Structure prediction request, 623 residues.
Amino acid sequence: MSSVWDRVEPLLGLVERPARYVDSEWGAVRDREAAYRTALLYPDVYEIGMANQALAILYERLNSLDDVAAERVYLPWLDMIEAMRSAGVPLFTLESVTPVAEVDLFGITLPYELTYTNVLEALDLAGLPLRSADRHDGHPLVVGGGPCVYNPEPMAPFFDALLIGEGEQAVVDIVETHRRARARGALRPEVLRDLARIPGVYVPSLHVPSGVPGGLAGGRGTDTSVPVVTKRVVGDLGEFRAPVRPVVPYMDVVHDRIAIEVLRGCTRGCRFCQAGMVYRPVRERDADAIVRDVMEGLHCTGYDEVSLTSLSTTDHSQLEEVLLRLGHRLQGTGIAVSLPSLRVDAFSSKMARLVSGPGRTTGLTLAPEAGTQRLRDVINKNVSEEDLLGAVETAFASGWRRIKLYFMIGLPTETDEDIRSIGRLIANVQAAARAATRPDQRGAIKIGVSVSTFIPKAHTPFQWKGQIPRVEIDRRQAVLRESMPRKGVDLSWHDADVSVLEAALARGGREVSGGIEAAWRAGARFDAWSEHFSLDRWTEAFSTAGLDLESTAQRSYGACDVLPWSHISSGVSFDYLWREWERAIEGHVTPDCSFESCTGCGVCGTGGLGVEIVLGGERRGVR
Prediction:
């Protein structure tokens, strides 16, 4: 045990939830003799980070390598941060209580924009310089990954390298490259050049800003002097098993259950959805592998619930077979199978009967996104009101009594009538739910409605369109509230201030890093926690960096503009995304290529990433 523990242990009686900071959970991997050590950070508290599947995948993958150890790190809560700083205790790993500054590689996931100041807090608490330019050979490599790297520029100066795309094989390449470079005595600049040669690895210090406001050279613009970094992708999920021996926490955490990824990618083509674009193509695990991993995962952990996870689990071509087989294997055990990602048009009466356990108690979640068919066509949602009401009737006839519906406001071309129609649609959902429920149980019906403000994200057809102004968000939220049924609906909406900040961080270029650092120095931490968020602090921080926060959020681009993320490729071509933007304005829908013919996004085949759609474990070429 590290000597740091002697300084950590006295602090545990001073803070809430000390279980956040202790090791020895069931399934934790300890290899204190490994020559190469990595620390994997989720930049939020333990109970949130423990639910992150990507980190669990990398943890298992790295620990499977010879003479390599991977250990977990989460950002301590504010009371522990204060106690650690007062006692001079640096950020440490859970498994061996090793100071993060002493590892070889510090891997940080970037799950969403509001964790950016948490990353800076973690670097500072570890005793590491915030910016890559200030680090020397004695410091660990700081490597980032995760959803936010598809616009890496706001956080680029703080990272030595960023992995674009999927990590199962790429993380091995990074570790092996680093070990070889150190073995020959390479200095840090040479190590970074070696890393930049790995497909999918972006080294920000080797890319010079072009002078275009917010952008770098390359991409759709005429200046192509900066090479495009293309994401890494796993061609066949069958090459890597889902983690079936995850760490089981001592305390309650978010999504406290075994999670088995059943497919990766989505080709539904919702035009607002970044994940649906950047995780293409669809690659399914076959039914045998899913059932095998579920059963082994339950055996190794003792959980009483398993979640079949993906962006759109009900799209899996063998899902009914999987549910039938699991229902047979788990009959009489009390173990529940849940589907967190449900499509309105894929939820059938048979599916409702097959989903077991507490799902009918905890509720059903569906995402119509918009109140009118016109606007659903604009965003390419490809579901109708009849689909939604049919799913509601099926669910409530099958025993569900709670439903939560997700919508957005601020979408391109949206009108007040589109917003008012959300309320009308909810009233129809209420009627459908009551009609499908026995009279004596209608009092138990609960309908939740969650409405977020649209944030244009990189690598989507809406990436060229800025966010609507802050005052307009307030006005549209008022229209929404007025449209809602007066009884029986629990309406919630995302804070407009938070949405503006998220848009600014999602759409900005490298210059935004100055605003992020200024906000952190002013005390910004845990911005996703409402009690710690302050838009005024962020507005002032952006101003200190010579920026206007709202203008950054509202910035729009033209077809030939160099975008801040033009040098990053998800495999989906910008020409395809522009065509989809034009089709959106015209209200034309685009089909799902998993079910119909190729739509020309550019991902599949030899002309793209060299991968193909995999359904039920079988590769399917471009049609």
Remarks:
- The chain has a mean pLDDT of 92.
- The first strand starts at residue 36 and ends at 42.
- The CA atoms of residues 174 and 195 lie 7 Å apart.
- The radius of gyration is 24 Å.
